[in-house]
Amino acid sequence: MRLNRLIGEISGAFADLGTFLPLVVGVLAVRGFDPTGVLVGFGLFALATAAIYRRPVPVQPMKAVAAVVIAAGLSPAAVAASGLIMGLVLAVLAASGVIGRLERLIPQSVLLGIQLGIGAHLALVGFAHVAADPLTGGFALALLVVLLLTPLRALACLLLLALVVAWQAAGGGLPSGLTLGFHLPGFAFPASADFKAAAETVVLPQLALTLTNAVLATAAIAAGLFPDDRDRITPPRLALTSGVLNLLLAPIGALPMCHGVGGLVVQHRFGARTGVAPTIFGLICLGLGVFLGPGAVTLLTALPIAALGALLVIGGADLAFSRRLFEARVDCLPAILATAVACVAVNVAVGLVAGLAVEVTRGAIARAFGRAAGKASKSRFS
User: Fold this and answer.
1) Do the beta carbons of residue 152 and residue 162 sit within 8 Å?
2) 83 CB-near residues (< 8 Å, 6+ apart)
3) pTM above 0.85, yes or no
């Protein structure tokens, strides 16, 4: 692999930290979660994904689950139960052919709207992180914009991280006294009450988000970025790998995980093109979990979220304003915009319903006008 390509892979491996880090640090701040199990889970999931797809298909925590953990304190056992339930549901949906039929039923206009909505949401979250520390975040965002306009764009993410670490070190913000050890995750199977808590709180909202963002939208964007792999990175395969890996990793304390269209775009934007990027990410997660264990939380917390938010702004903008959006037909715009607005204002599931409703209405109106025009034409020539 040439040096500039390797640099791009290394840079892309860290590009999704703006999504990954706030959720993982937020979950690990809740008492009872084992950092070793969480980080080893991410490491193994990423390595398996790299081997299966050989492209920078990302690994992210399931956002609805993480949000409930952070906001409501969902227990580690209930989180493990949610991972097992989600894993089983995704695997069954993929193996039964439901995912393939769902892909054919959802119009491209609605998928474009989901893409626009998710991209806008990521950019807004990134701006919120930047605004929390305007000096650090503003500097990081300006630096990224400048670097992406120069021949150094492949180094943009790496240079940003290097400067951030140097800045933190100069200000005494990096942790000291970290000790290396050898930590292995435990194994525990949830009780029936944990499955009940998971089913009542997170499974349905997370399933809607996973099917749209992590499965359908990710496959659609991957087909554009890597057209030679459109038969390999498909919705059924993405659902199946997510399902099987969650079933295997949930009992060791891993968070429920999935893929994600935002992570795919931002990794590609900063230079990742192959499975090397998720391999690097996976090895780092494994190393942190096994050799630092609980100390990894101290290290991850020291990284400034404001600077990583700048990565989200760039990646979100790229996802939202893609070439596919500007090539869309004018009559598809109402469905695209309705889907996107609902995604940002509420969530992806509501966005999907809103987009489908507008698309069905548009089709009915078009057919009605078509019939009216046909009758008028016949009456003129009769």
Assistant:
1) no
2) 62, 65, 246, 247, 249, 250, 254, 255, 256, 257
3) yes
